[in-house]
Structures are given as C-alpha cells and as structure tokens.
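Morning. Coffee machine broken again, so started the prediction first thing and wrote up yesterday's gels while waiting. Chain of 543 residues, entered below exactly as on the submission form.
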Amino acid sequence: MPDWRKLLRTNSALWNAAKSSAGSGPKVLIATNIGGHGPVGVMESMLAVVLTLRGSQVYTMLCDGVLPGCLKAEHNDLPDPAVIADRKIPDTLCSGCIWRGESMVLPLGLGVETIGKNTTESERRTALQISEKISLEDFPDFTYEGLAVGEHAWAGTLRYFARGDLSNEPLGETVARRYLEASMLSLFAVRRLIDKHKFDVAVFHHGLYVPQGIVGEVCRKMGVRVVNWFVTYRRNTFLFSHHDTYHHTLIDESPECWENMVWTGEQEQQITDYLKSRWYGSRDWIAFHEKPEHPDSDFKAFAVNSGLDLSKPVIGILTNVVWDAQLHYPANVFSGMIEWVLETIGYFKRRSDLQLLIRIHPAELRGTCRSRQPLMDEIRKAFPVIPSNVHIIEPESSVSTYAAMEYCDSVIIYGTKTGVELTSVGIPTIVAGEAWIRNKGLTYDAYSVDSYFEILDQLPFGRRMDEQVSTRARKFAYHFFFRRMIPLPFMIPNGKGTLYSVGIEKLDEFLPGQSPGLDIICDGILKGTPFIYPAERLGIHDA
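Came back before lunch.
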C-alpha cells in the first residue's frame, strides 16, 4: 500500500496549495467502494492525488459495511454462501476492507463519503422489500426507474458463485436477493451523493457488478460523465473508457480511431514482436497460460495422442470463462456461451469432413475466481460420448493455445480478446458473441443464429486472410495493445495482492508534463478527450 503521508510531505506546500485551490475546480467522484480491493485502492488513491494537483475537487466513495453482497466476496475466499445469505459479511470481510480503504484515502485529507451514511432507513427498507418480492427469473431484466439494477445484481451473483447459472446452488436464490438489495442500496447512495455534490465526472474500476455497475447506471441517468478503467495485459498499462465499461465500448469503438494512423515498418515489427511474446507472457502482468518450452512439438504430441489428424481441416474454437461479465450485449445471438459451445459441437457432429478443436480457457483454473462450472462438465452432460471429430484441450493442459490455433483452417470465438491476435497473423476468425474484434471489418460476424450457421456452412475456408486485411488487423492490434493500453511506468509490478506499487519518490513527479500516459488519463477524465496513447509518436515504454 502506498505511504501517502510520506509522499505528500515531500512537498507539503504544493499539496496544501492544490487542496486550497481545488474548491473552485471540477468535482470528481472516485467511486472506489471496495476499499479492500488492493489494485483498485492503489490506482484510485493515486488518481485522487493527481487530479487534485490538476485543480479538481475530489471525493472518494467507500462502503462502510452496509452492503449484504459485493465485488469483494469471491467464492475462492468465501466458500460458504451462508455467510452472505445470513448477512454475516460484516463479520468476515468488512472490517479489513474498510480499514484498507480508509488507510489509502484518509491520509490525503480529501472528501470521503460512504454508502451507509448516504442511505436512509426508509431506503434500506425499500431495498429489502424490492429484493424479496422480485422473482428470480426476472432478476436479469429487472429495472428500477429505468436503471438496469437486476442485470448487475445477477452478474455479481454469478461472479460470486463462479458459475454461469445457479443450478445446484441451494442458497443461490437467497444470495441473489442479497446482491439485489445491495444494488438498490448503492443506487440510493450514489443518487444522494450526486444531488449533494453535483459531480462533473465519476471515475471507477471495471464498471459492472455490484456496486460499480450501479454507480455507472445512476451517473449516466443523472448526467454525470462516466470513466471506467481496468488493469490491462501489458505490464505497467491501464485501459480507460468513456461512458461505460470497456466490455461494451471496445466493441463499438469506431475504426476511425486507428485505421488512418501513420503505419511504418517499425510499428509493424513492434506489434509482431509483442504478439509473439504473448506466447510466453514475457511482457504481460496478466497471463493465464503456462509458459511452454516447446509449443509446436507439445501441440503435435497432443494431436497424436488425441487422434487429431493435422492433414485434414481443423476448425478451432476458443472459449471464455462461463461466469465472466454476464451482461446484456445486443450482438449476442445465443443465450450464453454454453449454448453456443453445445450448438457448435452439435453442428460439427454432422460435419464429418471437418475436425473441431476446442481450447477451454485456462482461466477456468488460473483466473482470479476459479470457475465452479467447468465447461468440460457441461459438454459431457450434453454429449456423454464426445463426437469422434471433436477434440478438446482442457484448461489444465500446458498445450499452447497459440500453437494450436496456427494449425487451424479458421477459429470461432465468443468473447475472447484472442481474436485480435488471430486476425493479426492472418487466421480467419468467426465471431459468435461480444468479442472486441467485432465490427472492425476483420472478422466474420454472426448477427443471428441462422447467420452463424450459414458462416459455418462455408467451412473450411482453405486459405489465410488477404494480406491487406491482416495488415489492417495488425494496425488494430497495435492500437489495442499500445494505444488503448496506456503506460504508467511508475506503477511497478510487485507480485503481491495489490499487483503493483506506486514507484514515485516525490510529489512533484505527479505534476503535468512528467508522465505522458498520466497526462492523457487526466485530460480524458477532466476534459473528455480520448483515452488513446499515441505510441507511434511517443514510444511503447515497456517495462
């Protein structure tokens, strides 16, 4: 955790002057909420400092233990759902979470608001009543005064259970009701804070689940600009988005942001080298794959052992974690990822001329929230006998996903970002869900179940992408990995629960002009400018 008292003392006069002048500046709500979430607390307390130095009046929002369900509760750490169902979270999570959050923001001497102090007894009764009367079937679509409260409560519940549904969870419905109640409490608190302070912009992590997703819903409804951020793949980089979570905004981002940028052999080489490094995760701080020593030969050994015939057409399929980001996407043509996988297997069962190679996402086992609904179990339930032309690389396998996909005629994806990499090396890619590569003119995008199977009817393609198109894909990859992922070299990986530390020794190092990436982030928050780092001019700044 950063020692803000020590850092602020390196120029107390500067800090005091900044706080004094900030009263007339734009009002910023940093909706940290979950103070015990280490990476969030470090980043957002840093943002509170740098935005204050740029003349903003900053308030941080924390939870004071009133939410009966929240993002901090993960099944890995809290395996007994009765703790949530019986309202015992304050006895297990809240004290440490509150202490950690206060430890990072109180030393700044800036405004701090809490959820509990901004909800009334009447609102708490209303939140409870609503959570008790809504039928479980109506949760995902439940709205309150036009706000998608149920969607985020449902997503938060699935995230806690690390499942795509609540079947076989005896306390699932009760836990879901706690998350809906928490969503309503968050709604009331944020609404009151906006009425009280008239914020110009709200900044907060991720932008979905409980309570962050509700913060975004209320802010958008009340005319407060929303900025969401997330830790990205490359070390020392972060992704910021306007208006909504990046899960939505990256899909809809206009190609005009990147297709006309200056493109040289240097940029081409930089993105090619980086994409190759992702086989080993050597330049990333988020990686789910093991580092293969012999990726090509390992995959060939898998092919021999599984009976996969590499002399015949192979179609790849890359999955997601079942529970992750269960939000509504207009582009979804299936009810969910499981239905997509099972329908696709059923299709290929009838296509004896093709082989289907399924790579189950390693994050089922290695992600932050280990999945409790393994996709392999769902496949076996639907297909007790796996079709002979279907081959599966299970999540625990060390076989390189990248090596496997290079042997495929084409690859089908649902929501994985790997589509950015596949198209960059010329592998034809079919998008069946909400992948970020959709709508870029680079992939075969399905917009209905019928159109999806019509695309599959064209397989095998028997060729790689046109070189002009794959070059364009590499431009998008460059934009995605080097321009949208904004470098903050002073956020240093530490291998601990906070993920990174603030490697700044003097307060003056936070001033404008000291860090191009930080300036772009602050300008985006305060002025609404694009969160795009011009790496083609300023360099990549890999750590």
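The domain at 255-483 is CATH 3.40.50.2000 (Rossmann fold). Going to sketch it on the whiteboard this afternoon.
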